[in-house]
Amino acid sequence: MIENAKQRWANCLEYIKANVSASQYDTWFASLSFVKYLPDSNTLFLLAPNSLVRDYIEENYVGLLHKVLVHFYGKGIRLNYCEAKRVEDANMDAQEESSLHKHPQSSTAPFKTYLDRTRTFDNFVSGQSNHLPFTVAKSMTEDNRSTLFNPFFVFGPSGCGKTHLINAIGLQMLAESPMKRILYVSARIFQVQYVEATLKNTRNDFIHFYQSIDVLIIDDVQEWMTSVKTQEVFFHIFDHLLRNGKRIILASDRPPVDLKGMIDRLLTRLKCGLLAEIEKPDPQLCRDILRFKAAESSISIPNDVIDYIANVAGDSVRNLEGIINSMKAHLLVRGAEIDLSLARSLVKAIVRTEPKGSSLESIVNCVCTHFNVSHTDIAGKCRRQNLVQARQVSMYLASKLTPLSKSQIGRRIADRDHTTVLHSCAKVEAMMKEDAVFAEMVRKMEKELAF
After folding, report:
1. What is the spatial distance between Cα 307 and Cα 287, in angstroms, rounded to a whole number?
2. Exposure winner among 25, 26, 176, 327, fewest CB in 10 A?
């Protein structure tokens, strides 16, 4: 019964993930944990990391949350929150939780790492755009005692796998050395904790806690650019850890040189290790990621859908994951068939796109590439067979993919009238019925232009 209720909450998270942005999900929902479900009172208990998360969800997502809870738990579902202790409190012995400043944690107490156990090396798909940081990350975990590449500073655009990679490093190091104090924390949470410690006059305890960490992993350090006091306190923690041979792993959406507002002495420290860039995934890596995620989710995606998504949403791994999660939700809730139509509707909701096929220029460019001819050839009067075919296919595709009239198409492509366009369309359609290779080529061009 408990496992069934817990699985229903996992289904809720899948649905929520498909209906909010990746950043919204990661910030507000990913940290919610199932505690228990009481069927007699139809009450679900969730663990929230702090009151900030709980209150924000209640104020901004109550409608979405109510809808999904009713769907998976039924009408009359009640929701209660349990609030988690602060990171430093959670690492104290239970008998000493009211006195944060006494001891960070006894060596025998369980240490909460806050690592995401779903983000491992095993499910990190590597390719040309992330080869260097992935290779370095793997080598770091092969010898836990080495401080080579310390600090390790990985940077790149949002949604390209930085958080996944640094989590994978932490998890692998933890597997190799279970007694090590390994902590993952976002820059925003670090800053909130520091402000709380300052207000409660426990600043020294905050510093001592972080100085006790063996492997400190901090995500999104660009969020400190306007907070000099946070930078100052982190500098002292950083300096202590580095001098004592502890490991520091940092992630940012930009390289240190572009962290405007960072104090000079901290910037110098950030640059003293290894800087590794994760670039936007190339189309082949996007296809590999989509196939891996689809297999992981036990869903089948046709190759034409994979090609479409890779070409349209390939700027971000997070976009690809969001689309896969949306497809999974559609299968789960509606039993929808995965095809290009569904893919286009999901991509439209997640990615801002401009269809390439909306202009005559893009159509003629595509045809020129496939037929190995020039714009001048298509616009000219030459009657060689390959040029005639290229001209006819251009008019056929323009008729299908643009709102232009036949007269406009004829005049703008080759200074012909509408009857030439009508003839070209009829000729291409007839050839597609007779010649499978030609038909496949035209369909391929149409798909490319639709992307």
Report:
1. 7
2. 176
- What 3 state SS string does the chain have? CHHHHHHHHHHHHHHHHHHCCHHHHHHHHCCCEEEEEECCCCEEEEEECCHHHHHHHHHHCHHHHHHHHHHHHCCCCEEEEEECCCHHHHCCCHHHCCCCCCCCCCCCCCCCCCCCCCCCCCCCCCCHHHHHHHHHHHHHHHCCCCCCCCCEEEECCCCCCHHHHHHHHHHHHHHHCCCCCEEEEEHHHHHHHHHHHHHCCCHHHHHHHHHCCCEEEEECHHHHCCCHHHHHHHHHHHHHHHHCCCEEEEEECCCHHHCCCCCHHHHHHHCCCEEEECCCCCHHHHHHHHHHHHHHCCCCCCHHHHHHHHHHCCCCHHHHHHHHHHHHHHHHHCCCCCCHHHHHHHHHHHCCCCCHHHCHHHHHHHHHHHHCCCHHHHHCCCCCHHHHHHHHHHHHHHHHHCCCCHHHHHHHHHCCCHHHHHHHHHHHHHHHHHCHHHHHHHHHHHHHHHC
Token pair of 120 as six digits: 């491992």
pLDDT of residue 110: 63
The rounded distance, in Å, linking the Cα atoms of 279 and 259 is 18
Tokens representing residue 23 in the block: 């950043």
Chain centre distance of CA 107: 36
Distance CA 5, CA 46 (A): 12
Length of the chain: 451
**Token digits of residue 8:** 């229903």
Q: Quick: pLDDT tens for 40-69.
A: 888 889 888 776 677 778 777 888 888 899
Helix 187-199 to helix 203-211 angle, to the nearest 10 degrees?
A: 140
**Entry pTM:** 0.57
Contact between 427 and 381 (Cβ < 8 Å):
no
Q: Find out whether 52 and 23 touch, Cβ atoms under 8 Å.
A: no
Cis amide prior to 104 (ω within 30 degrees): no
pLDDT at 230: 92
Dihedral class, residue 148 (left if φ above 0, else alpha if ψ from -120 to 50, else beta) = beta
Residue with tokens 């663990």: 47
Q: Interhelix angle for 2-19 vs 317-333, to 10°?
A: 120
Instruction: Report d(CA 298, CA 311) in Å as an integer.
Output: 23
